[in-house]
Amino acid sequence: MTDLNDDYSGEYPICVSGLTNAFGEHLIHEDLDLKVRKGEVLGVVGGSGTGKSVLMRSIIGLQTPSSGEIEVLGRNMMEPEDEDDIDIRSRWGVLFQGGALFSTLTVGENVEVPLKQFYPEISDQLRGEIARFKVRLSGLPDEAAFKFPSELSGGMKKRAGLARALALDPELLFLDEPTAGLDPIGAAAFDNLTRELKETLGLTVFLITHDLDTLYAICDRVAVLADKKVIAVGTIPELLALDHPWIQEYFNGPRGRAALAGKNDPQLEAAAEVSAECAVAAGESDNSSTTGA
Asked: Is the predicted pLDDT of residue 275 greater than 70, yes or no?
């Protein structure tokens, strides 16, 4: 891995070294290294099949690597968990693609699932109040807590999944393609929400995305997956200084140039902020009665 700025001397809540992942003879990652800085929004990009989601799943223990070391919040994830340890999983939240909500539970009940798992002693009343607070924190109206996933629009499902990811007041937040399938207004609103939550709650965010607007809007650094490794980590200007063909094609292609133009245009940036605010307001007033996507 090439860290394009190694002056950082703070904490690394996520450290991956020498990671190898393979499915049979198909090698996904080979000797992959990555360090995530505390309090940053790290965007993770790469072409299809480079293993972005596999990397995230390896970090949170859903995928067993062939070899390597993974340390999360000071704990070696490759070692069996000690029964006396506080479950490390309670210290992070995950938003999977599509929200991954339980279809037979309401939004509020979905948010209560991790609370029941890790804090079974909490009363039903308190657990419900916490769930409704997390629903509001995600930008959804109060009544959304009583709706089923099938009654939500695509953007509302993303926010419901985010509410569940925030249920345990995590230190780390993992987001897998959170703006995929959203219209530009909805995507901008979700980006703004992510940045606000990161700053307000002191989160470290591991963000997988293809959305160039998201990278420019909220990511402090970007990690590029290619050639079975993280080939570089840095700010977008630092990455643009590299001559790797995939990096140049990705950031200097038509969509990359459009995203950069939007980032540098104060009027467009202001319009995006207004659109995001309008999207949240519309969700509060209209989406309470909207069904479907």
From this structure: no
**0.70 cut: is pTM over it?**
yes
Residue 31, pLDDT score:
95
**Cα–Cα distance, 287 to 281 (Å, whole number):** 10
101: CB partners within 8 A, 6+ apart: 107, 110, 149, 157, 160, 161, 164
**DSSP category for residue 76:** E
Rounded-to-integer distance, Cα 212 and Cα 232, Å: 17
Cβ–Cβ under 8 Å, residues 188 and 275: yes
Please, which pLDDT band fits residue 254 given cuts at 50, 70 and 90?
low
The pair of three-digit structure tokens given for residue 135, joined into one six-digit string: 């629903």
Residue 292 has pLDDT above 60, yes or no: no
The answer for residues whose C-beta is within 8 angstroms of residue 140's C-beta and 6 or more apart is 107, 156, 159, 160, 163, 283
| Structural element, H or E, at residue 192 | helix 184-201
* Token digits of residue 221: 């650094």
pLDDT for residue 287 is more than 50: no
| CA dihedral sign, ordered 153, 205, 112, 76 | positive
The letter for the amino acid at 128 is G
